[in-house]
Write a structure and sequence with these properties.
single chain, alpha+beta, five-stranded antiparallel sheet, 30% helix, globular
Length: 112
């Protein structure tokens, strides 16, 4: 049997996929409501995926899609290839084919 920790069994900390989706939905909703916040809600796995996709785009020239926070109610999809990444300033330079855009990583809500 599992050891108790803080009055609950360790196995109780597991999250079902349906509950994880709902929790992420609540976090995104809270993020939209608090639009002054600088950083999006990314868990460790999402952050690793984000880094992998950005590095793939930067090194191999693969196109990625980013959902960017543009205002409280409206958000913008940007599709392009990452040309540069500045970790200190938290910026990505993306070539969309028509123009080159600088995007703050804190404004990114979703990446595909």
């Amino acid at each position: 049997m599992s050891k108790k920790k803080y009055g609950q069994f360790d196995c109780n900390r597991l999250i079902l996929p349906e509950h994880r989706e709902k929790l992420n939905h609540w976090k995104q909703k809270a993020f939209f409501e608090n639009h002054d916040r600088e950083e999006a809600f990314f868990d460790e796995q999402e952050r690793e995926r984000f880094d992998d996709l950005v590095n793939e785009s930067l090194n191999e020239g693969k196109e990625i899609s980013l959902l960017i926070k543009s205002s409280k109610e409206n958000h913008l999809w940007i599709r392009g290839v990452v040309q540069a990444r500045n970790l200190e300033k938290g910026l990505l330079r993306i070539n969309t084919g028509r123009e080159v855009k600088l995007i703050k990583t804190g404004e990114i809500i979703k990446i595909e």
